[in-house]
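The following block was generated as part of the benchmark described in Methods. Ligand: manganese (II) ion.
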Amino acid sequence: MAKQNRYRFCFGPWNLSEGQDPYGPTTRPAQTFDWKLDQLKALGFDAMMFHDDDAVPDIDGKSDSQIRSETRALKKRLDDSGVAAEMVAPRLWFSPMTIDGAYTSNDPKARKYAIERSLRTIDIANYLGTNILVLWLAREGTYLRESKNGRRSIDLLVEAFDKMLAYDKRIRLAIEPKPNEPMDHAYLPTIGHALAVAQLTRDPKRVGCLIESAHAILAGLDPADEIDFAMAFNKLWSLHLNDQNGLKFDQDKPFGSSNLRVAFNQLRALERNSYGKNGEYICFDVHPFRPTKVEHWMAHLDNSRRTFLRLLEKARSFDEKRAQQLVADRNYAALDQMVLEHLMGRD
Ligand code: XUL
Ligand code: MN
């Protein structure tokens, strides 16, 4: 029997969010980074994800040497806690410079800012001991299609990725596609788009992807299919498991919260592809529900991992032989019910 994978878990400081939404303010008090790190350790997670300014707050006002000394101090705190840095991602959607996009902005000064900030994020990744740069291309798209030239936008994305690949020979770019929000339409909405654009860069083998369950669902796709697709290319370098109830705003619900069967199929896809065999983590990009009280603040992360581990047992105990017999007999009604009863615990 193939060796069973032991999964390792991770989340980011933003996953302990304070409850703000476009219609109302925070519902929980702000906490320090140290508090968040303590919570991560208390829950027994293995690693933390970072935006560049999670690692170095107010990064734009800081010099390279300040960035170096602050990041090294952070690395020591992480080492002392036995926590790894899983990835670093440039937060390119907050600055006044990126109002109209970052790498695909119509303003050359904004594009220059976005690339320079990404190179600084690569420095941070190096100081923190990870070679994964996650690129969620938040504003690389349009509100109205006439405002940008789509063909030129692809060229600009490739140009930006090439600068990052040339800057550091070890860095790997993990593109995190999302079809919409904040934009009406994004230029790289799916894993197929991300992996296709990788082929246009100077080093395609260092351009891969990160799948987020909710983003795949927003694109009308099954996240399990996205996992199989990316892993057929050996390019799934990180994963944001969560859930999403249909086509609406990005919900970042606990893993399995809306559709247990879709979550079960993600587990099956991870298992059949041996996700994690090269050290990749299971990251939960989940948020607490807005009404969550302070004393229940960590539950969405603990619950996501509990659901993951229960579904892992379900994936491993699924009767594949019987399933294959039903497939051979084209008895999909029985296969369907077999899955439901397995999930409901009847067999
Ligand atoms: C946005 C999203 C981000 C990225 C990291 O929808 O998922 O949190 O995962 O920049
Ligand atoms: Mn995400």
